[in-house]
Design goal:
Helix content is 78%, strand content 0%. The chain is an all-alpha fold and 227 residues long. The N and C termini lie far apart (62 Å). The relative contact order is 0.06.
Length: 227
């Protein structure tokens, strides 16, 4: 079955078609022949759309999720086999929600195998209306490019993640840490310092988990800058 969101979008599409044709009919209300033609068009378009939704779209969506769930529920597979199966679903159903979820799963597994270029390509196929899922996918894409030593590309994905996360206190400071590490690798200590200062100013409750406090990171960057 189609998801609630997909059904809602489909209903809205039908409403738009109906509204547009109804408005057109009202403008030519004095012409009986054209009204009849408009009614015929409404019936024809409605029949086509409904046929698409119930004969093709719904079974297609259901099949996509069936294949995705088959991979999800299989006995424990090796990462390489599971990744291959997720990639297959993602490639075959790239426009569907199930295909996007498969792309995310494939990207995660490919990353774990060190196949960073492939992982990035599949992660880019994922999209969601959930900001947390989106931002975490962007972060992992950035991580792929860090491992590929394409630091400018990594930074661009980290910035997308920060924008998508919209001040989420669990995500943004973590990404700022990653940005700072990349800037350090590039020798851009001023930008790294800005990242740490933003964490201190806007996310004072963030826990680093390694025993270091934010002031220690700031002092390190200031020392590198000769301040």
């Amino acid at each position: 079955m189609a998801s609630h969101k997909e059904k809602k979008h489909e209903d809205l599409a039908l409403d738009r078609v109906h509204s547009q044709l109804t408005d057109a009919g009202a403008r030519i209300a004095d012409n009986k022949k054209i009204i009849l033609i408009a009614v015929a068009v409404i019936v024809a378009v409605g029949a086509f759309v409904m046929s698409y939704l119930f004969i093709y779209k719904n079974p297609h969506v259901e099949k996509a999720f069936d294949e995705y769930n088959q991979v999800e529920t299989q006995p424990i597979l090796s990462d390489s086999i599971a990744a291959s199966q997720y990639m297959n679903v993602a490639d075959r159903y790239s426009g569907d929600a199930a295909g996007k979820l498969a792309a995310l799963s494939a990207g995660e597994l490919l990353y774990n195998q060190g196949r960073y270029e492939e992982a990035a390509q599949y992660l880019k196929k994922f999209s969601s209306k959930d900001a947390v899922l989106n931002s975490n996918a962007y972060v992992l894409t950035g991580d792929c490019y860090v491992n590929l030593e394409n630091y400018d590309e990594a930074l661009s994905w980290y910035k997308k993640a920060i924008k998508e996360a919209d001040s989420n206190p669990q995500i943004v400071p973590r990404v700022l840490m990653k940005e700072a590490n990349v800037y350090d690798e590039q020798g851009n200590y001023g930008k790294a310092l800005e990242c740490y200062q933003e964490i201190k100013n806007n996310y004072p409750e963030f826990q680093f988990g390694n025993g270091m406090e934010i002031d220690a990171y700031i002092a390190r960057e200031q020392a590198r800058l000769g301040e």
